[in-house]
Design brief:
mainly alpha; 2 helices; 85% helix
């Protein structure tokens, strides 16, 4: 092995480490920002689904109340509920 080869290899190791840090660190930061953005978007979508589910549950409760309430005038109740709750 050439005596000149040892210092060259010795210098290539830190140079490679420095270049890798300059390239890898920004890449990792970019990946982290992308994951945070995706997590935010998923959380917003989940909140929208939760709100829609709540609206649907309220409508089902109204329908259950109509079906189980035998003493009330059904047509009058439906009209009253239509006026009170706007359908989406």
């Amino acid at each position: 092995m050439s005596p000149l080869l040892i210092p060259i290899v010795g210098m290539l190791i830190p140079i490679t480490a420095i270049i890798a840090k300059l390239i890898v660190a920004p890449w990792i930061a970019l990946k982290e920002r992308r994951l945070e953005y995706e997590a935010t978007m998923i959380a917003e979508k989940a909140a929208q689904y939760a709100a829609q589910t709540e609206r649907l549950e309220q409508r089902v409760r109204v329908l259950e109340r109509i079906i189980t309430d035998r003493g009330a005038d059904l047509a009058g109740e439906i009209e009253q509920l239509r006026d009170a709750l706007p359908l989406n």
